[in-house]
User: Which sequence fits this backbone?
C-alpha cells in the first residue's frame, strides 16, 4: 500500500495553514487504517520550524522545496513541483485544502495525471468497493464523501481505477488533532531546480495587495448566528450586542447574507465556513441541511425560533420558542447584569 500525501499550504505569516494541519490529522487516521506512511509536501522560502509544526500531527516524511522564487504562491511552479513529486513517490491518496490555492492546484494536477478528484469533501473514509457490473472488488480505497444535488443527498464518490485518488476538503471540516507530540519523521530537502523550470516563472509579480481577515468566526468559542428570521440588518445589531457581551462572534445563514443582513464572510454552512464552537446560539434560523452542515458539530446549540417545529430544534440542546427580537434584549440585559 502506497503513502498518503498532503499538500501543506503556507500562510502569509509563513506558517503551515490550519486547513493543512486539519488534513494531516485526518490523513494520519486514514494512513493508520491502511498501514501506510503519511507524507507532506511543503513549498516555500526559508520556512522555519516546519518539522515542529507537522510531526505532532503524525507526518512521517516532509518533502520540502525551498527557493526564494517560491516565497509566494504561483500556479505553474507549484503545479510542476507537486506533479513531479507525485510521479516520483506514487502516493495512493493526495489531499488539498479547498482554499483558493487548493482549488487552483487540485483540478489542474488531477487533469494532468488523468485521475479523479472530488471537491469539497465533508468526510473521507477507507473501505471496499464492488463494481456492480463486473463484480470486481476494490479493497481499501478512498471514500470521498460530500453533499450533492444541493445538499439533498450525501454522495460517496470513489476512483477505483486511477491513482492517486485526490480530494479537496474545506477549512474547518476535519478536526485538527495532535497525534503524538513526540512523533518524529524525516525531512527531505528537495532541490527546486529538479522540479521547476524557468518557464514556470513566466508570470512576474509586480505588487501584492493583502487584506487582513476582518472576522474570525472559525476560531470563536461562542457564535451568535442569525438567519432570515431576524428580519433586517438593524435587528442583526442585537446579535452583535449579545456577542460582544458574552465574548463571541456573529455568524449568519446564507439567506441572511443574501438579504444583506450580514457580510459574506460570516456565512456558516455548506458553502460558507464550518465551525465547532463551544456554544452556538441560532436566532431566527430554520436549520436547513446546508446550514447544519457547517455547525452541527457545535458542543452546545441554543435555538431561538418562533416555530416549535423548525428543523434546527431537533439538533438543539435548548430551544426557546418566541420572537428573537423580544428574547435577545432580555438575554443581553441578563448577561450584562450577571457580569457586573
Ligand atoms: C447548494 C446550496 C448551498 C447552500 N449553502 C448554504 C450555506 O452554506 N449556509 C446556509 O445557511 N444556507 C445555505 N443554503 C441555503 C439553505 O438551503 C437555506 O435556504 C438557508 O439556510 C435558510 O436560511 P434561514 O434559516 O436564515 O432562513 P429560513 O429558512 O427562511 O428560516 C427563517 C427561520 O426564522 C424563524 N423566524 C421567523 N421570524 C422569527 C422571529 N421573529 N424570531 C425567531 N425566529 C423567527 C422562522 O420560523 C424560520 O425557522 C444553501 C442552499 C443550497 C441549494
Assistant:
Amino acid at each position: 500500500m502506497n503513502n498518503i500525501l498532503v499538500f501543506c499550504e503556507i500562510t502569509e505569516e509563513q506558517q503551515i495553514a490550519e486547513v493543512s494541519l486539519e488534513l494531516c490529522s485526518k490523513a494520519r487516521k486514514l494512513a493508520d487504517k491502511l498501514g501506510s506512511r503519511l507524507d507532506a509536501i511543503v513549498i516555500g522560502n526559508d520556512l522555519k520550524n516546519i518539522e515542529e509544526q507537522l510531526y505532532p500531527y503524525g507526518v512521517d516524511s516532509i518533502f520540502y522545496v525551498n527557493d526564494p522564487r517560491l516565497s509566494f504562491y504561483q500556479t505553474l511552479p507549484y503545479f510542476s513541483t507537486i506533479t513531479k513529486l507525485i510521479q516520483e513517490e506514487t502516493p495512493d491518496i493526495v489531499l488539498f485544502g479547498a482554499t483558493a490555492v487548493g482549488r487552483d492546484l487540485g483540478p489542474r494536477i488531477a487533469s494532468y495525471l488523468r485521475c479523479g478528484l472530488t471537491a469539497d469533501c465533508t468526510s473521507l473514509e477507507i473501505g471496499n468497493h464492488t463494481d456492480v457490473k463486473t463484480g470486481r472488488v476494490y479493497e481499501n480505497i478512498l471514500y470521498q464523501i460530500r453533499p450533492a444535488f444541493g445538499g439533498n443527498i450525501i454522495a460517496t464518490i470513489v476512483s477505483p481505477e486511477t491513482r492517486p485518488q485526490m480530494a479537496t476538503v474545506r477549512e474547518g471540516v476535519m478536526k485538527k488533532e495532535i497525534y503524538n507530540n513526540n512523533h518524529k519523521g524525516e525531512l527531505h530537502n528537495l532541490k527546486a531546480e529538479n522540479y521547476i523550470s524557468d518557464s514556470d516563472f513566466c508570470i512576474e509579480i509586480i505588487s501584492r495587495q493583502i487584506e487582513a481577515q476582518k472576522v474570525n468566526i472559525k476560531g470563536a468559542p461562542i457564535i451568535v448566528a442569525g438567519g432570515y428570521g431576524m428580519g433586517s440588518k438593524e435587528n442583526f445589531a442585537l446579535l452583535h450586542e449579545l456577542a460582544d457581551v458574552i465574548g463571541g462572534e456573529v455568524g449568519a445563514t446564507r439567506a441572511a447574507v443574501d438579504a444583506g443582513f450580514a457580510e459574506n464572510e460570516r456565512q456558516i454552512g455548506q458553502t460558507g465556513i464550518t465551525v465547532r464552537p463551544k456554544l452556538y446560539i441560532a436566532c431566527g434560523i430554520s436549520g436547513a441541511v446546508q446550514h447544519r452542515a457547517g455547525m452541527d458539530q457545535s458542543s452546545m446549540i441554543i435555538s431561538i425560533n418562533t416555530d416549535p417545529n423548525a428543523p434546527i430544534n431537533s439538533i438543539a440542546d435548548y430551544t426557546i420558542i418566541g420572537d428573537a427580537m423580544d428574547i435577545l434584549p432580555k438575554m443581553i440585559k441578563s448577561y450584562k447584569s450577571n457580569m457586573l
In short: The chain has a mean pLDDT of 95. The first strand starts at residue 4 and ends at 8.
